[in-house]
Amino acid sequence: xxxxxxxxxxxxxxxxxxxxxxxxxxxxxxxxxxxxxxxxxxxxxxxxxxxxxxxxxxxxxxxxxxxxxxxxxxxxxxxxxxxxxxxxxxxxxxxxxxxxxxxxxxxxxxxxxxxxxxxxxxxxxxxxxxxxxxxxxxxxxxxxxxxxxxxxxxxxxxxxxxxxxxxxxxxxxxxxxxxxxxxxxxxxxxxxxxxxxxxxxxxxxxxxxxxxxxxxxxxxxxxxxxxxxxxxxxxxxxxxxxxxxxxxxxxxxxxxxxxxxxxxxxxxxxxxxxxxxxxxxxxxxxxxxxxxxxxxxxxxxxxxxxxxxxxxxxxxxxxxxxxxxxxxxxxxxxxxxxxxxxxxxxxxxxxxxxxxxxxxxxxxxxxxxxxxxxxxxxxxxxxxxxxxxxxxxxxxxxxxxxxxxxxxxxxxxxxxxxxxxxxxxxxxxxxxxxxxxxxxxxxxxxxxxxxxxxxxxxxx
Length: 460
Fold this sequence. Notes:
This protein has 15 helices and two strands. The chain has helices at 16-27, 35-42, 46-73, 80-88, 90-120, 139-156, 159-187, 200-204, 207-225, 241-276, 282-328, 346-360, 365-393, 408-427, 429-459; strands spanning 132-133, 137-138. The longest helix is centred in the middle third of the chain and has 47 residues, at 282-328.
């Protein structure tokens, strides 16, 4: 299946290098630089936390294998929106796109830019006091909103320009993270005992409390790994999607898993579980212990670049979902408008910017992550299930790539995701309920849209 004629507004320009960079940049965002502190507070056991990061990486790789099969079979812009629409029908596809706008991309971009500002406090100490403008809105939130619109401006200048920017900032990001890991091992003033020491809170956890903490922590981990499917959203813009889409998903996910384990080792080596518990800026705390003031400056710079790169990559991927939605629903046709000379979905970028700005000024980083993580896990699971359903309902579908280890690969992903969502709901009912309400809101909007379309057809 080739990209349709209706995708002419988008350009066919994405190569394997850029697609892999997009996956890496999407995945390495606010999560890895903030959530270890939340996990340390919830669980208090470094070994368990490391196992969660390994499990999350294996689950992400399983998901990437499934998306590789789906993306190679249906190389269209939109990612899981396309897979769910073609497998389960328009309603599920529509809800997926609606959730992508609110929780799939806007919320993670909000978390990344808010995290960016938190790390900028090292260079601008007055920001640490979170000053407000006329006592109404925080200056930090205004800076985060400004960063969002700066990245949108880069994308509006042209799709090729946006991809080149993403390539270079991702390269700087990866080199910087590798340098931090190597420097911590070579000259860091940490303690190996920190890697095994547990907190008092861990011993006090009951069995039910431990399962709840594991579920909540795994949601944080899966939020950090979200983005392993990033290149699938640009499938309609690949030069060779059947070949390069699967490679980019697997290569990007594998690289990120290694980097995540290395960064967590740095955090615990530098600060220990007690020193990280409840801390948002875990990178700064660990760097201060490992390298002193000079090292903190360098690490802060790397982390700021990393968060900006993540927000940039999501700014590229998200609008492709709304673009695909606009092709299928006349009421949202404005979202499919792209400048043919530059390949940028203008309206979709602007809409995402507005939603992201609203989330920035209304939520904390941990709330945003838990809310987004629950919804991302839900719809990633539905998309992965498409692999199984389509093997039965459409056995004749052209599959240039088949998921390794099928059917075990999708079944493991689905089972782990269900377990995670159950215990995450027990541990964070407010954020999880808001996630489900977002899904329900998508269903209501779909029914309203379908009703409008049926009324228009009857009028004709």
